[in-house]
């Protein structure tokens, strides 16, 4: 898919700093600065006094993009007070990654006038229009994507899975009624195993005769007939 138009969009460029710069001074430390050029637009950082070979800037600039122009030129100079500024090195920054992804943080190599290594410059590129273009592209492709409802009604049809019937596992032992009742090893306690013992002694005769029911009463053997107490003469003294 071709890239969307960049005409009139804004590119944000942050100059972080430089390192390992070629030294153009003999007796003192150089004072580098950075110039950014895009078409007819030109931005310059502050001068890093006595920055030497490693200068820090942390400055941000805005560029309005033009269709068909996707390169940014960077030039690093050494500031002089009494003479013309010294050229240290330059580089051409490709904007393809920043324009397509919206962000690029990279260190670029600087070259001197004769093409030799002259140090490095670090830039951070932000292109906010890339997110909007990607969002629009996603919406253009959405009609071809399958439409999935956000909510679905609960399934009320037959079960999609077979019904599993569970049976009660049979016991490994037969029921208790399958065995006949076992006879008791001992006779019931009510039946005596021995006959009743005979009495040790026979029943003795009664000490008294049964009373007589004959009438008239018989004469007592202990007293003579007609004699009663009080009829005998008193004993002599």
Automatic annotation (TrEMBL):
<protein>
    <recommendedName>
        <fullName>C2 domain-containing protein</fullName>
    </recommendedName>
</protein>
<dbReference type="InterPro" id="IPR000008">
    <property type="entry name" value="C2_dom"/>
</dbReference>
<dbReference type="InterPro" id="IPR052981">
    <property type="entry name" value="Ingression_C2_domain"/>
</dbReference>
<dbReference type="InterPro" id="IPR035892">
    <property type="entry name" value="C2_domain_sf"/>
</dbReference>
<feature type="compositionally biased region" description="Low complexity">
    <location>
        <begin position="166"/>
        <end position="176"/>
    </location>
</feature>
<dbReference type="Pfam" id="PF00168">
    <property type="entry name" value="C2"/>
</dbReference>
<feature type="compositionally biased region" description="Pro residues">
    <location>
        <begin position="195"/>
        <end position="214"/>
    </location>
</feature>
<feature type="compositionally biased region" description="Low complexity">
    <location>
        <begin position="215"/>
        <end position="230"/>
    </location>
</feature>
<feature type="region of interest" description="Disordered">
    <location>
        <begin position="166"/>
        <end position="237"/>
    </location>
</feature>
<feature type="domain" description="C2">
    <location>
        <begin position="1"/>
        <end position="109"/>
    </location>
</feature>
<feature type="compositionally biased region" description="Pro residues">
    <location>
        <begin position="177"/>
        <end position="186"/>
    </location>
</feature>
């Amino acid at each position: 898919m071709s890239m969307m138009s960049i005409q009139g969009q804004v590119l944000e460029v942050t100059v972080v700093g430089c390192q390992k710069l070629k030294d153009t001074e003999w007796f003192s430390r150089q004072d580098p600065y950075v110039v950014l050029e895009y078409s007819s637009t030109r931005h310059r950082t502050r001068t890093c006094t006595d920055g030497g070979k490693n200068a820090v800037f942390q400055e941000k600039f805005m560029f309005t993009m033009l269709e068909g122009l996707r390169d940014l030129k960077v030039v690093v100079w050494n500031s002089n007070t009494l003479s013309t500024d010294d050229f240290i090195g330059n580089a051409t920054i490709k904007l393809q990654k920043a324009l397509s992804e919206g962000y690029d943080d990279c260190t670029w190599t600087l070259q001197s006038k004769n093409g030799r290594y002259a140090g490095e410059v670090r830039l951070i590129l932000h292109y906010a229009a890339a997110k909007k273009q990607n969002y629009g592209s996603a919406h253009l492709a959405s009609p071809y994507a399958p439409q999935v409802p956000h909510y679905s009604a609960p399934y009320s049809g037959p079960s999609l899975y077979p019904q599993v019937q569970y049976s009660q596992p049979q016991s490994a032992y037969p029921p208790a009624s399958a065995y006949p009742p076992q006879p008791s090893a001992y006779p019931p306690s009510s039946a005596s195993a021995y006959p009743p013992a005979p009495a040790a002694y026979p029943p003795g005769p009664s000490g008294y005769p049964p009373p007589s029911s004959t009438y008239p009463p018989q004469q007592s053997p202990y007293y003579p007939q007609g004699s009663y107490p009080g009829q005998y003469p008193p004993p002599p003294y």
